[in-house]
Amino acid sequence: MPTEAQITDALRGVIDPELGGNIVDLGMVSSVAVDPDGHVDVGIALTIAECPMRNQIETDTTRKIKAIPGVTDVTITTTAMTKSQRAELMSGVRMRAREEAEPTQVSPLTRVVAVSSGKGGVGKSSVSVNLAVALQRQGFRVGLLDADIWGFSIPRTLGAQARLEADAETKLIEPATVHGIRVVSTGLIIDSEETALMWRGLMLSKALEQFLGQVAWGELDYLVIDMPPGTGDIQMALSRLLPQAEMVVVTTPQRAAQKVAIRVADMARRSYMPIIGVIENMSGFTCEHGDVYDLFGSGGGGELASDLNVPLMGNVPLNPAVVGGGDDGVPVTAGHPENPAAVAFTEIAARLVELLPPAADETCTGRIAKLLADLDVPV
Known about the structure:
- The chain is an alpha/beta fold.
- The chain folds into 2 domains: 4-99, Fe-S cluster assembly (FSCA) (GMP Synthetase, Chain A, domain 3), CATH 3.30.300; 111-367, Rossmann fold.
- The chain is built from 14 helices and 17 strands.
- The chain has helices spanning 4-11, 54-66, 83-99, 124-137, 154-158, 201-213, 233-241, 255-270, 300-308, 320-328, 332-335, 340-355, 359-362, 364-374; strands spanning 15-16, 21-22, 29-34, 39-46, 73-80, 111-116, 142-146, 165-166, 173-174, 176-178, 181-184, 222-226, 245-251, 275-281, 285-286, 292-293, 312-316.
- The radius of gyration is 25 Å and the shape is elongated.
């Protein structure tokens, strides 16, 4: 008579096509029973009652079990997972995807900063660009990836004109270099920035995969990624492709923006992506007489940081120079470093370096070098 252990081992050969794992390790096998006459009863818990892969899973299960000597018949009973079971399953799937991530052209020593927001219109791209510029001005090797595939704006904001081309020998795409930053964007591939990209979810993920796996990023201290707003395909793909990625959440002082931003933070944590901190953009407008007007409310960034238990990295004032610099292709941090907004971006970049120092500084060799420098010992 076949044993339950034999049945379980055979079921490891049944793969859920959507989740990419076998049904035993995924926790989908709820019960196994073997009668003395060789009849096998198997319980399978599907993620949802009307799972589109149900027939394939049942067919594969029957075929695998019937191949075991002594099995006379197979009965499969399917049920739907509870909410908690489904959450546990998906948590395991996301963790396994991170652990088994395919290598990319981004060095494991590169600090990856995903600049994210819960919704559009909070100035996330301006923050990404000026943060990258501020890091570069502080002497770091910086890359900037425009992952907002549909709504790309990085090329115009940086004044980038060059087209992306592949190296004839390596076959890898060479980033454009603007303001000392290595830049990649779909806006540097298409003919015109007025061209609409009518791509669906899978193509968006594939584009991100290509930008990470087929671009010669080189040795970078920081890779800043301008994420699309919300919690869609790109966000999920990034957590899978770059396990070292960490998130900075951008919000405005407005309570509505703060509440929406919590969703993207929740997605990050459920994908095991650490959250570095919160940046409050458009904090207040100072008129020529020195009066400050909170046009978008106040306190939202601080409340969000408190809710997420992460630091508020800084407040960027509402300033026309930020908009003008973006339209002219000269970010305010590069063109007017004395501007209050540029000063805020510079301070935020310094805070980022404190919270997420370059990985080379965190190695044993790097720590020894820092210690010797502090002791004023020649290296």
